[in-house]
Design goal:
Blueprint: H1 5-54, H2 56-59, H3 67-76, E1 83-89, E2 95-99, H4 117-124, E3 129-134, E4 142-151, E5 157-166, H5 168-218, H6 233-268, E6 272-277, E7 282-285, H7 287-292, H8 297-302, H9 305-309, H10 318-324, E8 329-335, E9 338-348, E10 354-363, H11 365-400, H12 407-438, E11 446-449, H13 451-468, E12 472-477, E13 484-487, H14 488-504, E14 511-519, E15 522-529, H15 536-539, H16 551-556, H17 563-573, E16 577-583, E17 587-595
Parallel strand pairs: 12-14
Antiparallel strand pairs: 1-2, 1-5, 3-4, 4-5, 6-7, 6-10, 8-9, 9-10, 11-13, 14-15, 15-17, 16-17
Helix pairs in contact: 1-5, 5-6, 11-12, 12-17, 13-14, 14-17
The chain binds adenosine-5'-triphosphate (ATP) and magnesium ion.
The site of magnesium ion has 5 residues, from helix 14.
Amino acid sequence: MFKSIRWKFIVVYFLLVFIAMVIVGVFIIEKFEEYHINQITDTMEERVKSIIKISSAIQSDSWEEVKEDIQNTIRQVPLGNTERLYIIINTDIPSIIASNNSKAVGENAYEFKALNSKLIIDALKGKKVDAILPSLDKLNGKDKHLAYPVYDEVGKIKGLLYITSDLTYVYDTIDESKSILTKATLLALFITVFLGFFIAKSITGPINDVTIKAEKMAKGDFNQKVEVKSDDEIGQLASMFNYLTEKLNKTLSEVYREKSKMDTIFTYMADGVIAVNTQGNILHANPIALSIFNLTYKDIESKKFDDIFSPLNEKITLQYLKKEGKWEGNELVEVGSEIYRAKYAPFKNDKNQIGGFIVVFQDVTEQQKLENMRKEFVANVSHELKTPITTIKSYAETLLNGAIEDRDLAIQFLSVINSECDRMGRIVKDLLQLSNLDFKQTKWKIKSLSLKKVLEDAYMKMKMAAEEKKQSLNLSVEENIPNIYADKDGIEQVILNIISNAIKYTPDKGKIDIIARKREDKAVITVKDNGIGIPKEDLKRIFERFYRVDKARSRALGGTGLGLSIAKQIAEAHNGDIKIRSEYNKGTEVDIILPVEDSV
Ligand SMILES: Nc1ncnc2c1ncn2[C@@H]1O[C@H](COP(=O)(O)OP(=O)(O)OP(=O)(O)O)[C@@H](O)[C@H]1O
Ligand SMILES: [Mg+2]
């Protein structure tokens, strides 16, 4: 409590007033005493001088003879109650010849207790001397003594006038004054403490207010405002505080807004982000980063970045970056079946040095897949075209080398060359069609078509091929199936492709059913066979370009592996789809789904 400004203020006030009162008191008392003593001294001196002046007896040179007269003079002189006058004659042993103190007359001046022998000795040397001496008859009382030498005509000291005066009343007055001053001091101190309390309160009140509100601010409540009651320094402090609060509030909410914005970006961005300091500790990792690398917040706190990432890719570890001195770049990181591009860049610390680096992990699995597919496709195209070219070239060379002479052999060779050319032609035609479908260059002649009619035409076209393999090919179309709305040639190509696949990949004497019905707002054409089927692992890749389950077999059957991808793309261009269900060695079911006329 006594540490507070209020109490310090009161104590300082108290001490100041106390010291001032004590100094003033001592000074006044001293001056008062000096004034009174001087006054008494002057009066005594005046009295002595006037006695000498008016008394002829004292003026006479032979005091011994006029003793009685001198004594009479003394009786006549009006002396104060407490004043004692002694006439001392200067003989070998100075004695008192007259006095208003009857006991003193005739006594040896040196030995008379009421007088001071030292003063007498000094005065007899020709000096007027005075002193304040302790009173004989009053305890603690004081008397003023004055010894005044008197000269005869030839200038010799004939005696002394020795006067004493009791100073009791002076000291009583001084004591009285001291008591008044003490009381005044006490009263002043009381008022000081009282006023000091209120003045201090008026000063410390607003400061306390600021302190309390600053404490609340420290706890996070920034909506604090202090009342500005004056325009003095404290008022300025209060308004400065308010200004500061407002500024702080504004800045903090801006910072908070920015932070939450950043947090949201970090949390919801599709890429994983990890920040690492130069000690290799992970400073921050967003939820995506945690899920990519299957980490928990605990792992982040306990593990070093390099421990986690060196098995994945050495080139993004802190150790490697430090060694190379290259803090910016990108690397691929494979996690299971996913591929991430790790882009890293340094960040600076408050001393403008490298404080660590941030790595952003971007999922490039799809991109990478597409890239691989593209490369695979180019390789496939080249391979598919190279095979017939090689065959043609070797047969042509053999012919040139003489085989042409053998007519039967030449015809056989030329027919191989012819069929390989057809094959190349087919591949190029299919690729061209795919490219047109990719770039949406195909012009569709969309119109209402009777599905029944389309299917019957296709059935007729494929019948021969099925008969050749002694397969039973059956068509069943639901009654009242609605028309489809499509391009006739496109849809026919799709249906023929699927039926021809069923025939191709079903052994002799197999059974192929073509069933058409309406399901919800779609027409579904199911081509069902009991052929070789497709293994499960190949099923998901079956629509990829050039993908064939058994390349050699398919090629032997004249397939290029483009048929299904073309069919699917045509179906999709008609807002339809193709779905395949298959069981290896049991059979395959292909659904061609097309929108019916009403729903278009
Ligand atoms: N009904 C089916 N039964 C079993 N396998 C099939 C069937 N349909 C397709 N496949 C498999 O899917 C692969 C891809 O078929 P796709 O029609 O795309 O090519 P293809 O028939 O080999 O050649 P083409 O381009 O001449 O049609 C085939 O090679 C075959 O392995
Ligand atoms: Mg096919």
